[in-house]
Specification:
Mean pLDDT: 85
Distance between the termini: 126 Å
Order of helices and strands: HHHHHHEEEEEEEEEEEEHEEHEEEE
Strand content: 15-25%
Number of helices: 8
Radius of gyration: 35 Å
Length: about 425
């Protein structure tokens, strides 16, 4: 009976597995831990690869991270965004080209369109005067001789005050040292307005100051702002020209070279005897002893009362600036000299290099040169001393406060002072 029971399972019973039958069941159970270990090892390998790639990228990017961090931690008068763009321009290989191309695309897409509504009024500038006072001033020979003629309006129907000069501060020696006005620039663009200032060279002394980083090398860096000891006679400030790297634009102060002057560049010069001039430089890398300061910026755009013919022949040439060239419509500034030797400054939005030349020519400049461009940089500020030094921006610039140049600034600039007896020098205190 025992043998019968062992010969096979009874009803409801299972036969115990033999050795041969147990192998197929035990093999998968043995490979289970191995299969679970394989995904873990693959994930670990992927993590190691990612760590190695991240470490390699960090090694590659570490110099750039250090450069950007050091750049951004330096003192600056610029906003975070503008400062970041300047880092790309100056520190990244081909960064200047990348920024220029990006700006070209952006400003082309956002260029002002022709036409549009007519303006009903112009932005107020200068000090309003009673009509009786204005009449008396016009009759006074000494005053009348100092005032430049009204800028003839471009539009057939002028707006109130268009092209009419107004003083920007108190008189000096019986006449206005600084006058300002506005006028519409082109019939096809009725909303574009030029902001213009005129500086009497007999009543003012102009000084040129380096900023923190422009020019790159300065014989005397100075306070990078209007010196405290000179603010009692401060009348106006305005921005400098294209950077040294954009056209080898040299400069000098008190007979000492900052960056070497380049022959052929338009050069704004302040002489020690108070005269102001624009010349095509041909005197070597440094200014002579009779020059108080000198600042270059590209090629002349107006010469002997006429537009430079190269403006029409090649308006997008690098000689008008590598940044955006000359045909992109953007904020532009420029300076000129009238036939009496007085300085004219102009700033306007939506301009090409040709239209800026025409603005300065129309305002009375017989020689002119382009200064800095783009909405970050144009700055014209006047000071009237109502309840202290009272700065007022002439021309809107939300990226720059009216206190610019009263605190250290990144870029070089000009200060217009009340004239003092004796030779003109650049005071750094």
């Amino acid at each position: 009976m025992d043998g019968l029971r062992r010969s096979g399972p009874g009803p409801g019973e299972s036969a115990p597995p033999d050795a041969a039958d147990s192998l197929p069941v035990q093999a998968p159970l043995a490979r289970g831990p191995e299969r679970r270990a394989q995904p873990r090892e693959a994930a670990a390998r992927r993590r190691r690869r990612r760590i190695l790639i991240a470490a390699a990228l960090l090694v590659v990017l570490l110099p750039a991270i250090y450069s950007y961090t050091s750049w951004m931690l330096q003192p600056t008068s610029l906003s975070f965004g503008v400062r970041s763009v300047e880092w790309v321009r100056h520190k990244v290989p081909f960064g200047n080209w990348l920024v220029d191309e990006g700006e070209h695309v952006y400003y082309t897409l956002n260029a002002p369109e022709k036409g549009g509504p007519q303006l009903k009024s112009l932005p107020p500038v200068g000090l309003s005067q009673p009509r009786t006072s204005r009449v008396r001033t016009a009759k006074a020979p000494t005053h009348a001789a100092a005032w430049p003629p009204r800028i003839k309006p471009v539009f057939p129907h002028s707006l109130p005050g268009e092209g009419v000069w107004k003083p920007a501060g108190p008189p000096v020696d019986g006449g206005p040292p600084v006058l300002v006005t506005t006028f519409r620039t082109e019939l096809g663009y009725p909303e574009l307005v030029a902001y213009v200032a005129w500086f009497d060279h007999t009543r003012t002394a102009i000084a040129y100051y380096p900023g923190r980083y422009e020019p790159p090398n300065a014989a005397v860096r100075g306070p990078m702002m209007v010196p405290y000891d000179q603010r009692w006679r401060l009348l106006a400030t305005f921005n400098g020209g294209f950077t040294y790297t954009d056209g080898a634009n040299g400069s000098a102060d008190n007979g000492r070279m900052n960056e070497p002057l380049t022959d052929g560049n338009a050069t704004l010069i302040g002489y020690r005897d108070g005269r102001i001039a624009i010349v095509k430089w041909s005197g070597g890398p440094n200014a002579g002893p009779d020059v108080a300061w000198a600042r270059q910026s590209l090629a002349p755009i107006v010469w002997n009362g006429r537009l430079n013919p190269q403006l029409d022949a090649n308006p997008d040439s690098p000689q008008w600036g590598y940044t955006l060239g000359g045909v992109t419509r953007v904020w532009r500034t420029g300076v000129g000299i009238d036939r009496r030797g007085n300085l004219i400054y102009a700033a306007a939005d939506g301009q090409t290099v040709i239209t800026m030349a025409k603005i300065l020519q129309h305002a009375g400049a017989v020689r002119a040169m382009e200064f800095d461009i783009n909405p970050e940089w144009h700055t014209l500020i006047t000071y009237s001393r109502h309840h202290g030094l009272d700065p007022k921006e002439v021309g809107p610039n939300p990226m720059q406060p009216a206190t610019r140049y009263l605190v250290p600034d990144d870029r070089d600039f000009f200060a217009v002072y009340r004239r003092l007896p004796g030779q003109v020098t650049v005071p750094f205190r």
